[in-house]
Design goal:
The complex is a heterodimer of chains A (296) and B (261).
Chain A: H1 17-21, H2 38-41, H3 47-67, H4 79-91, H5 94-126, H6 128-141, H7 150-157, H8 161-185, H9 189-197, H10 202-238, H11 245-254, H12 258-286
Helix pairs in contact in A: 4-12, 5-6, 5-8, 5-10, 5-11, 7-8, 8-10, 9-10, 10-11, 10-12, 11-12
Chain B: E1 28-37, E2 40-50, E3 55-60, H1 66-73, E4 81-85, E5 90-93, H2 105-110, H3 119-128, H4 144-156, E6 162-166, H5 174-191, E7 194-198, H6 202-208, E8 211-216, E9 219-225, H7 237-249
Parallel strand pairs in B: 3-7, 3-8, 5-6, 6-7
Antiparallel strand pairs in B: 1-2, 1-4, 8-9
Helix pairs in contact in B: 3-4, 6-7
Classes of the chains: A mainly alpha (296), B alpha/beta (261).
Domain ABC transmembrane type-1 (chain A): 95-279
Transmembrane segments (chain A): 56-77, 106-127, 139-159, 165-184, 228-248, 260-279
Pfam families (chain A): BPD_transp_1
Chain lengths: 296, 261
């Protein structure tokens, strides 16, 4: 068809040099090694088992240290003792009630923080005016440690639920804002141009190009926000609370009950794991277009 | 390549048998167009007319403003002086496919279409470029050639009166490029829309176009009408003559073997 585009004259598969020179005596014969098929390299151990083996090993170490007396119960209660206390706390309703209260606080804080953070990010990400009005203030406010605002919140909102939810909201808002904003601004300008050439309206561009493009950033923001939400919860509940996980912990501290404290910490860890699972699931559903490296 | 271009154009669409009826019988009319970047005129008083159904190739050295001209015709660059008339229905295929990675291929094809066209519309366009089987794939799983064909389907589904191609084969490997060029030639003959192909590949231009323009110093510096029969054969001495002439216009010695793609 054309000279510069002519197919290469020799497209027959090249035999690997090793295979050919193996027969000739004079050439140096390279040592061959087999390339194992990936299926044969995979271990037979199921994935979930491998994932749980780490925590189980830690648990075993803890039990051994407690049994040998290296860890005394005044420092850290043994796993057996902790599970016993956990069962008691569940049985008498203390733990479920406290968890319910804490979960509600986190959920509300997350909800408000997500709404505010996303709204602000959309305002400053999509509109030049919004950026001028919003971004500078948010960038300034986000450097204030939100935990430092707890005393102020108590003065403003009293000691009820409001200051606790407000602290969580505040902690959640900023990471979400930053990531959604960065996500919006990092959308490939070539795609925006393509959308324009396809005749998309301004709103169509936002809906079909900008927002989906910002989603990976938003998901990262959500991850950060969830982590901070738990952190904020612990802070908020250890000051002036009369219910919730943090309150149970403060009480336990007064009675030197390390076992109860550990139970609460484990509960925090599990709630965090669940939150992470939720985000992972969301990412799998919303970002399935993104081919990602999943590891070997 | 398909059949004789000067014969009756065989259309698959019965409702649009003839090239688009334009009042002034132009698919593109550009008069006194200038575009400046920081005071430097990249396009300087350019004149251009493209007939409906005409295949025009635009050649030029890199940086001569040919892509800028295409972007202006596409309506993506509006900081211009002069008159530019283009059909309302126009479509662009860029050098990179620019598919939205978060939309399945068929949704990409339908993106921006007025109304709420159903998937069959997209599938038909994808079938036309031989990509019907990847309709439900994510764009990032397509090969380079497949993605470029999807991009072409996205342009064609708009039934454009003017199709703007910005070096659409530049990023393809040699074998895929030959197939893609052939496909564009066939699609053009079937659709009968005007095409403006921006390229830096002289052979590609001579292979496909009715008229080859060479852009230099911000204007159309040279124009070659090609009435070579189709399908065109590079072994044809006339082909070689036109190619050599154009290469010379572009400042490449005729003896040179490579067009410098």
């Amino acid at each position: 068809m054309s000279i510069s585009h002519a197919p290469p004259t020799d497209i027959s598969p090249k035999t690997p040099p090793g295979a050919e020179s193996a027969g000739t005596g004079s050439a140096a014969v390279p040592e061959l090694e087999p390339i194992a098929a990936s299926s044969s390299r995979r271990t037979r151990v199921p994935r979930w088992l491998r994932r749980t083996s780490g925590p189980v090993a830690l648990l075993a170490l803890w039990q051994v240290l407690s049994a040998t007396g290296v860890l005394t119960s005044s420092v850290l209660a043994s796993p057996g003792r902790v599970s016993q206390v956990a069962r008691d706390l569940v049985a008498d309703g203390t733990l479920p009630t406290a968890m319910g209260v804490s979960l509600q606080r986190v959920a509300l804080g997350l909800l408000f923080g997500t709404l505010i953070g996303t709204a602000l990010a959309l305002a400053s990400g999509l509109f030049r005016v919004g950026e001028d009005l919003v971004d500078a203030s948010v960038q300034m406010l986000r450097t204030v440690p939100f935990v430092g605002l707890i005393p102020l919140f108590i003065i403003w909102f009293g000691i009820g639920e409001t200051p606790k939810i407000a602290v969580i909201t505040l902690g959640v808002t900023f990471p979400l804002y930053l990531n959604v904003y960065a996500g919006i601004r990092s959308v490939d300008s070539q795609l925006i141009e393509a959308g324009e050439s396809l005749g998309l309206s301004r709103w169509g561009l936002v809906r079909h190009v900008v927002l989906p493009g910002a989603l990976p950033g938003a998901m990262t923001g959500l991850r950060y926000s969830l982590g901070i939400a738990w952190l904020a919860l612990v802070f908020a509940e250890q000051i002036n609370a009369d219910s919730g996980l943090g309150f149970v912990m403060v009480q336990a501290r007064d009675f030197l009950r390390t076992d109860v404290i550990v139970v609460c910490l484990v509960v925090y860890a599990f709630l965090g794991l669940i939150a992470d699972f939720v985000v992972r699931t969301l990412e799998r559903l919303l970002l399935q277009w993104r081919p990602t490296f999943t590891g070997r | 390549m398909a059949t004789d271009v000067h014969g009756p154009v065989t259309t698959t669409r019965k409702e649009k048998p003839a090239p688009p009826p334009a009042a002034n019988a132009s698919a593109v009319r550009v008069q006194g167009l200038s575009r400046r970047f920081d005071g430097r005129a990249v396009i300087d008083g350019l004149e251009l007319d493209v007939r409906p159904g005409e295949f025009v190739a635009l050649l030029g050295r890199s940086g001569c403003g040919k892509s800028t001209l295409l972007r202006i015709l596409a309506g993506l660059d509006r900081e211009i002086e002069g008159t530019v008339l283009v059909p309302r229905r126009k479509a662009v295929a860029f050098q990179s496919p620019r598919l939205m990675p978060w939309k399945k291929v068929w949704r990409n094809v339908l993106l921006g279409l007025p109304g709420k066209p159903g998937r069959p519309v997209a599938d038909k366009a994808l079938d036309e470029v031989g990509l019907g089987h990847r309709s439900d794939a994510w764009p990032k799983t397509l090969s380079g050639g497949e993605a470029q064909r999807a991009s072409l389907a996205r342009a064609l589904v708009r039934e454009p009166d003017l199709l703007l191609l910005d070096e659409p084969f530049g990023a393809l490997d040699a074998l895929t490029r030959i197939k893609a060029q052939r496909l564009v030639g066939e699609l053009w003959q079937r659709r009968g829309c005007a095409v403006l192909l921006v390229t830096h590949d002289v052979e590609e231009a001579v292979l496909l176009a009715d008229r080859v323009l060479v852009m230099d110093d911000g204007v159309i510096a040279h124009e070659a009408h090609l009435d070579l029969p189709r399908p065109r054969d590079i072994a044809d001495p006339e082909f070689a003559r036109v190619r050599g002439e154009l290469l010379e216009r572009l400042g490449v010695e005729t003896g040179a073997q490579d067009t410098g793609a």
